[in-house]
Specification:
The chain is an alpha/beta fold. The chain is about 30% helix and about 25% strand. The longest helix is centred in the last third of the chain and has 18 residues, at about 320-335. The structure holds adenosine-2'-5'-diphosphate.
């Protein structure tokens, strides 16, 4: 039996933070003491962990005394301010925000793809958890890249509202209820109604005409796979789905891969499940991906418009593999290989 650890979850009352607590419990992470942290708004709230109710504490500079691992999911500005404070207090931070992802000194990790980069946590005491859409994409791309070298990836996403946080889940539910009752729906989170609509707008627009979310998919993919010659272009779209991001991928490889070969490769790839039997109406869907940890891939078919092209459809639970599960998997490797007691 190994030792146990003091683990803080920053943003424990949020959509991802709640999943982090659930993942720690489900995966039997050896937690000695759980420290759930949030804002003053959550004073008096409790989180349930291993059958016990634990009071949520207000995040302060002193919150990290004795904390060995700190999982952050309370937004970029909190990570920027408190990540280094937690690291200076001796914790290893696994940060789900975009604050540190492209910092060259900070590892950006998907355990199925680049687990060795976790060792670079010693640089700054921080490991970055990638963007949800990037995680599920690279889990599928890496084994195909190893087999046939990726030249170019064109991705279009269909992203669930839970990626924006609990307030967006509530907004979609409230808008649907209002519309079905013939009332005017309220909009606070998105600039347009999300119920029965699609918004080609995730995160802020940049000067180059792309959104920040789209550029995250480009830059993070190259960093995680460790190859900046892979060309990536993305269109990211918010759709009225609660949980589970979907992605249409078009890839071009150096060596030709048949759909059969791609299916064989993906069938044994870690963290991936092939769901690809169109004649039986079997293909990945958010409804099936939600609540579990695998990345589902299907609709694997040749792109006849180019020489070495494939089309694929990839779906995963954005709060789990896209965020909480990936962070807890990183923490598992951290304690197994680097912080062993
Ligand atoms: P709180 O519930 O107290 O506002 P989501 O992504 O679902 O919107 O959740 C964001 C998480 O980040 C919540 O747990 C939220 O806590 C937390 N959070 C937001 N701002 C702060 C802050 N200033 N200090 C600590 N936690 C914060």
């Amino acid at each position: 039996m190994g030792g146990t650890y003091t683990v803080a979850v920053v943003g424990a009352t949020g959509a991802v933070g709640q999943q982090m607590v659930a993942c720690l419990e489900e995966r039997r992470f050896p937690v000695h003491r759980l420290v759930p942290l949030a804002s003053e708004r959550s004073m008096g709230k409790k989180v349930t962990f291993m059958g016990k109710e634990i009071p949520v504490e207000v995040l302060t500079k002193d919150s990290f005394d004795g904390v060995e691992i700190a999982l952050f999911s309370a937004g970029g500005s909190i990570s920027k301010e408190y990540g280094p404070i937690a690291a200076a207090a001796g914790a290893v931070v696994v940060d789900n925000s975009s604050a540190w992802r492209m910092d060259p000194e900070i590892p950006l990790v998907v355990p199925e793809v680049n687990p060795k980069d976790i060792g670079l946590y010693t640089n700054r005491g921080i490991i970055a958890n990638p963007n949800c859409s990037t995680i599920q994409m690279v889990v599928v791309l890496k084994p195909l890249h190893d087999a046939a070298r990726l030249r170019r990836v064109v991705v279009s996403t269909y992203q669930a509202v839970s990626g924006t946080g609990q307030k967006a889940v509530d907004e979609l539910a409230n808008q649907v209820r209002a519309l079905l009752a013939c009332q005017e729906p309220e909009k606070k989170v998105y600039p347009h109604r999300i119920a029965f609509n699609c918004l080609p707008h995730i995160d802020v627009f940049l000067e180059n005409g792309y959104t920040k979310e789209e550029m995250k998919m480009v830059n993070e993919t190259q960093k995680i796979i460790g190859d900046d010659t892979i060309r990536v272009t993305a269109t990211t779209v918010r759709v009225p789905v609660f949980y589970g991001h979907s992605e249409a991928l078009n890839i071009e490889t150096e060596r030709k891969l048949t759909p059969y070969e791609a299916r064989q490769i993906l069938a044994t790839a870690p963290g991936v499940k092939v769901v690809d039997d169109p004649l039986k109406n079997q293909y990945p869907m958010p409804l099936d991906a939600a609540g579990q940890d695998l990345t589902l891939v299907g609709r694997i078919r040749e792109d006849f418009s180019i020489e070495n092209g494939l089309n694929l459809w990839v779906v995963a639970d954005n709060l789990r593999k896209g965020a909480a599960t990936n962070a807890v998997q990183i923490a598992e490797i951290l304690i197994r290989d680097y912080l062993r007691k």
